[in-house]
Amino acid sequence: MVKLLFGVSDTEECRAAIKTIIRLFGQRQEVELTLLHVTPEVLMYAESGIVDYGMIESIENEKSNEILDEFEQTFKTEGIACKKILRTGNPIDVVLEIADGYDLLVIGASESSMLHRIFSSHQNSFVSSSPIPVLVAK
């Protein structure tokens, strides 16, 4: 059994990685696919005024579950069953916490913008820190 961990996010690059997973693993019966989405922690500052933390967290969880459901439905359409994990925190830390239970980490390639690659891409951190092989899919 090959256990794949697919880090999903609300980006076109991540959605494009679905095709790669289907092409490489879609016809194999011994594949277990887990979708992981990590939401950032909600930070509140005193000067921001009165904020309903629970409501903000609920909205973030709802958006995250919609993303996971979208990816799950796409794989189901192709006959691939998957598990879903939703966590809160730093994506790199969360992946490193659970990666040992998997054989391969799949992530979508960083967005093409050079500024995005420099300032907000986790791709290089995943590749350099992961204890398991990483497939960067386009």
Task: Describe this entry's structure for a reader.
- The chain is of the alpha/beta class and 138 residues long.
- It has a 5-stranded parallel sheet with strand order 3-2-1-4-5, with helices on both faces.
- The radius of gyration is 16 Å and the shape is globular.
- It starts with a strand and ends with a strand.
Task: Tell me the layout of helices and strands.
Elements (H helix, E strand, L loop, with lengths): L1 E6 L4 H14 L5 E9 L13 H25 L4 E7 L2 H8 L5 E5 L5 H6 L3 H7 L4 E4 L1
Parallel strand pairs: 1-2, 1-4, 2-3, 4-5
Please trace the helix and strand order, writing H or E for each element.
EHEHEHEHHE
Unreliable stretches: 113-120
Total of helices = 5
Helices and strands: which structural class?
alpha/beta
Tally of extended strands? 5
Overall body shape: globular
Which bin fits the share of residues in helices? 40-55%
Largest sheet properties? 5 strands, parallel
Arrangement of strands in the largest sheet: 3-2-1-4-5
Summarize model confidence as the mean pLDDT: 83
User: What is the percentage of strand-forming residues?
Assistant: 15-25%
Distance between the termini: 24 Å
Q: Give me the Rg, rounded.
A: 16 Å
